[in-house]
Amino acid sequence: MRLKAAVGVVMLVVLGVAGVDAQPAKRVPKKKPKDISAEITALGGTDLPGAARAAQLLGTYDLPAAHEALLDALAFGLAPEVAVPAVLAIAGRPAAPDVPALRRYAGHRNPTVRSAALSALASYGGAGPALVAGLKDPVATVRAAAAAAAGKGRVREAVDPLMLLLAKGEDAAGRALAAIADLDLSRKIADQFGKVPDPVLAACLGAILKRPDFTDPARVEIVRAIGKIQDPAAITVLTDYLDSTPKTPKRTSRDEAQLIVDARLGGGK
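^ that's the sequence the OP posted. Answer follows.
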């Protein structure tokens, strides 16, 4: 008994020296999960501006329940002014179950909704068929959204329909092809000289020229292809390339671009 008492005294002394409170630690209450019931209710309500705000807000929450609420609402059907923020909201945190819903809304009767769904699909794999279909949409803004999404996702199966749109002079197709292009595709695009409106072709090749993943020999080919274009747009994109690249280290592509610009503008010697 004396030994136990002595040990107890020693422990109290040690705890006192260490500054440790001998009292039992207080239990920290668990944080309550965020209540999003108000947003979910508003999303399904008749106040369309309020429902749109709720969709946007739910998209900011990193909560499975918020994502599920958006998907459920899309499944039941939403007015266009609510569907647009809803499809963009779920794309902020992509998940595999989203794709069927987005594909369905990519065929919506409202072109603004179709555009939003196609834009959202850029964040997902396996969206190629929906984007290819969007490139054939009768509305130009929807085609542009599909093109932008195909470019962002580098969807190779979209190349052929994008080439058809490029021949029709659609700038969005040119930007998408520039994002997708490898060296072989850039050569194919360059071969469209005379078949594609000059300003659109120049802009497309100019965007490829500024790609950081292209080697300088590849850029030389592109510069020469741009040099064949007589439209002032060719000089615009070459000048932009000169302005956006340093003089050192030396680049053959930059030197050739400078020669073309000087010759065209009368500054050569």
